[in-house]
Give the backbone structure.
Amino acid sequence: MLVEKIRRQGIRIALSLSVLAFFLIDLVWIDLPFIDQMENLAYDARVVVTTKSEPDDRIVIVDIDERSLTAEGRWPWPRDKIASLVEQLFEKYQVAVVAFDVVFAEADDSSGLLVLDRLAKGELAAVKPFQDKLAELRTSLDYDRIFAETIGRYPVVLGYYFNPPRPDGEAEKIGALPPPTLIAGTFAGRKVAFRQAAGYGANLDILQKNAAAAGHFLPSTDGDGIVRRVPLLYEYDGAYYEALSLAVARVALHIDQVTPRFAPVPWGAKRDYSGLEWLAIGNRSIPVDERVQTLIPYRGGQGSFPYVAATDVLHGTVDPGMLDGRIVLVGTTAPGLLDLRSTPVQNVYPGVEIHANLIAGIIDGKMKEKPAYTLGAEFIILTIVGLILALVLPFQSPLMATVVTVVVLIGSIAINQAVWSYGNLVLPIASGVMMIGLMFLLNMSYGYFIETRGKRQLTSLFGQYVPPELVDEMSRDPEAYSLEADSRELTVLFSDVRGFTTISEGLNPKELAELMNHFLTPMTHVIHENRGTIDKYMGDAIMAFWGAPLEDPDHARHALESGMQMLARIDEINTEFAKRSWPEIHIGVGINTGAMSVGNMGSEFRMAYTVMGDAVNLGSRLEGLTKTYGVSIIVSETTRAAVPDYAYRELDRVRVKGKDEPVAIFEPLGPAGAVSKPLADELKLYRQALKYYRSQQWDMAELQFLNLGKSSASPALYDMYVGRISHFREHPPGEDWDGVFTHKTK
């Protein structure tokens, strides 16, 4: 009877939870940030899983890259050069359309025409030969007109941007907008939540009048900083203006008009549903959301479309087969020109390639769609999942409950993925997964929620790893801590005694044990004082980590401060050792921050609460590299990024044994404000030497390192680079060398 009563109570709680979820998510339409975040992550995962491996050569990106800037001069280039670029693309390479992911908002005065005009109106006003010559040259010096006349001969699409409304109501209006795509009144009587613009940065009027079309190039950035959508229409002053990708697709398809298409109001739609579901160009319908945004059909990471350097186009060295009949987007991947975005497929992604993905999707008619009726689908999913789990799980054993939950979860994900792949529909998945997880947790935990684990149990679990004061802190919320394996971002520290074999050979076993106790005890105190967890002692080595079991948002800082304090404490230890006639000891410290698996791991014979993963291995490798670089402590680039207010010396960019990806390594020097002027001057010279070294200017680099070695109190690092330069002179690394040194040993 008691068991049945507990089960019935569990069913009632589970059904109540389901009903609550229905009302929160479906009926009341409350936006839950956590669900939105999960949905975004699920969307990104599906995008990554379904990316294609082969590039789409129908659209080519003419890249104003670093090489082009070096060859042709810094941006902006003179407009006559850009006119030559356009003419070269159409006349030599026979491209179909050219679009610019840049804006030409200001007049070009690089020809000197403005200066000549001032002279003509001033001190040279009476000099007739000058006036005659200026009149003769004016046409050839008016670069804006040259550019305008050039684009007027070809199908060229210009780009511009809108400025959102500002609190003070002021917004710049620069240049000339194109004619609106849809006029005011098109959506009269419908509550369409267009993105509003208060100002704009557009092209010169003479350029706009000669362009075939123009579109805005502003993608939408979600709350997590990821670009997943592009607004196809922006509203400004009551009229509606199309996106650059939409304008390019129209010109490429020879279509003049954009037509809004509306759907009947479906069951379950939000109260302010406008009915606008698509924008049509010809026989192609582009799905849009309530803000008239469309999902970007990412093909893959950077390089999903061919790139050619702008300078190669100007000089005619590009294979004509790459460009013949193609749609060309002129944009930039140069970091200094700030057109890089964070996307589901890549953290740093060229903005121009976003437009390429969208143009390809519009032309193919393969766009992901998230119509209003997906809210009804979400309701059905939650209803089915909630009923199945609420009625089945309370009657199952823990093992069978787990099996049922996994089957339901896999089934839900499989159906969602099939609809994504074959129907191009984006159905919600996060709420269903959360429902499954909540129902499973409810079933597993019911009957135990009134029990507490207490400080004694926590001490038995974690007391051997963390100090007692942290166990006290953990006991305030004991259910939050577990030995079960988990993956999270942590920071790991390795330290090792230099020359320990030699030290041990000079002491008898009793003295050696006493020495190690006097060494390890203060080192452990330092780690505990900084909220660290001792993983293990490995002879003379220490392994510790931060961020588990107790959450620590500043785990990287605490690990770095521990490493610095350990080095400082060594001086005190050596003073005591000298009094006992023991040998001096010196340590190397390696620190890395990254994703690690943490939990109780081992075998059926022995378990230990430890961390594992590539990030842990890298921390160990960094400790080993301290001897190579003649320093006492090395941290990775991720640790440096997590503690930006410290001063660092970049030691190298390396590939450590066991890892293919290069990593930058640094020597922390202390708080940034505490660096002395002589050391700051030394670092400045050292950075210049590194620049010479990485650009393979061996003579300049060697001279700098030799001079640094003579003046520095710690020349080991500079001597190492001198030796490495000698090796590279005999064995050049190649023109494509990326400055990374590969270490073959641990």
Notes: The chain has a mean pLDDT of 84. The longest helix spans residues 2-27. The two ends are 64 Å apart (CA to CA).
